[in-house]
UniProtKB/TrEMBL annotation:
<feature type="binding site">
    <location>
        <position position="111"/>
    </location>
    <ligand>
        <name>substrate</name>
    </ligand>
</feature>
<comment type="similarity">
    <text>Belongs to the type-II 3-dehydroquinase family.</text>
</comment>
<comment type="function">
    <text>Catalyzes a trans-dehydration via an enolate intermediate.</text>
</comment>
<dbReference type="InterPro" id="IPR001874">
    <property type="entry name" value="DHquinase_II"/>
</dbReference>
<feature type="active site" description="Proton donor">
    <location>
        <position position="100"/>
    </location>
</feature>
<feature type="binding site">
    <location>
        <begin position="101"/>
        <end position="102"/>
    </location>
    <ligand>
        <name>substrate</name>
    </ligand>
</feature>
<feature type="binding site">
    <location>
        <position position="80"/>
    </location>
    <ligand>
        <name>substrate</name>
    </ligand>
</feature>
<keyword id="KW-0456">Lyase</keyword>
<comment type="pathway">
    <text>Metabolic intermediate biosynthesis; chorismate biosynthesis; chorismate from D-erythrose 4-phosphate and phosphoenolpyruvate: step 3/7.</text>
</comment>
<feature type="site" description="Transition state stabilizer">
    <location>
        <position position="17"/>
    </location>
</feature>
<keyword id="KW-0028">Amino-acid biosynthesis</keyword>
<keyword id="KW-0057">Aromatic amino acid biosynthesis</keyword>
<comment type="subunit">
    <text>Homododecamer.</text>
</comment>
<feature type="binding site">
    <location>
        <position position="87"/>
    </location>
    <ligand>
        <name>substrate</name>
    </ligand>
</feature>
<dbReference type="InterPro" id="IPR036441">
    <property type="entry name" value="DHquinase_II_sf"/>
</dbReference>
<feature type="binding site">
    <location>
        <position position="74"/>
    </location>
    <ligand>
        <name>substrate</name>
    </ligand>
</feature>
<feature type="active site" description="Proton acceptor">
    <location>
        <position position="22"/>
    </location>
</feature>
Amino acid sequence: NKLLVLHGPNLNLLGTRQPEVYGHQTLEDIDDALRERAAGGGWELHCRQSNHEGELIDAIHAARLDGTAAIIINPAAYTHTSVAILDALNAFDGRVIEVHLSNVHKREAFRHHSYVSLRADGVIAGLGSRGYLAALDAVMAG
Ligand code: DQA
């Protein structure tokens, strides 16, 4: 029971990056909480952050082959631009949950459209880091 959590560009700066928008938790805090919760449910969770579109795509390709059952992804700014990440996710057979810390629909118009939502089975936005935990709970519930 393997799960992949993918974080897109600039999310390595969490905790210090616009905390009024993205919160005070670091990415490490978030990943630690997710790993712990997943382990409690008997799931093996792998976390990956990249500032590079191609690396995110490579990670999705690897997930197709290594038995990963679901991907929880915050594509960050690539949400709004990346047909390539959408195409990669379309080639992945498991579940896909899209997570955004902020409520993108309350923000600039360019954040209202998501390419990834064309593939995602579920979308969570605006709940901060709790959104990742909610996504994880949904995946583990089956
Ligand atoms: C984000 C929202 C995106 O619009 C933005 O580019 C991010 C983070 C979020 O988690 O709220 O980097 O995905």
